[in-house]
Amino acid sequence: MPDMYTSVPYDADAENGLNGNPVNLKPVAGTIPIGGTPAYDIPDTVEGYELAKQTLKNPLEITEENLDNGKAMYTIYCTSCHGSKGDGNGYLVEAEKFAGIPNYKDRDITEGSIYHVLMYGKGLMGSHSSQLTYKERWQVVQYVEVLRADLLK
Fold first, then answer.
1. Residue 41 maps to which CATH number?
2. Which domain holds residue 109?
3. 29 within domain boundaries
């Protein structure tokens, strides 16, 4: 058995696949690549907003670290319009650059609807999906819920 002593080199990652046989392997549906994030396939429609509002749940555990980073991201991206308390009185509203920024207290929102709006934007608010990572978006959602709870007291 001479081939036991001298192995044949195979380049499994070659352009044409193993031994020149092309292989088109696609990931299994519903899987997430290492270091990747789940695909967000809820459409940017009224129905999609309602679906997200009713079904999306925050996958992150509520921790001090998540809330602290959520606050930091909120301060960077949201405070200028929504205000530091979530009351819709941010700097740009006070400077009369924008009007009608919602107060979280007056909105029928859930963690799913907040995430959906971060992904696609709503009204004058643009999408923040390119500025915030998957984890940061959910951290902002946690922090917005804290602000809303404080406003409802």
1. 1.10.760.10
2. 35-152
3. no
- The model's pTM is 0.78
In a domain? residue 117: yes
Residues 6+ apart with CB under 8 A from 61: none
Token output for 13: 């990652």
- Whether the per-residue pLDDT at 19 is higher than 60: the answer is no
Tell me the DSSP string of 105-152.
GGS---HHHHHHHHHH-BTTBPP-TTTS-HHHHHHHHHHHHHHHHHHH
Q: Is the pLDDT assigned to residue 25 strictly greater than 90?
A: no
Q: How far apart are the first and last CA of the chain?
A: 80
User: Is 101 inside any structural domain?
Assistant: yes
In order of 15, 17, 20, 36, 38, the CA distances from 24 in angstroms are 11, 9, 13, 20, 22
Distance of alpha carbon 32 from alpha carbon 35, whole angstroms = 8
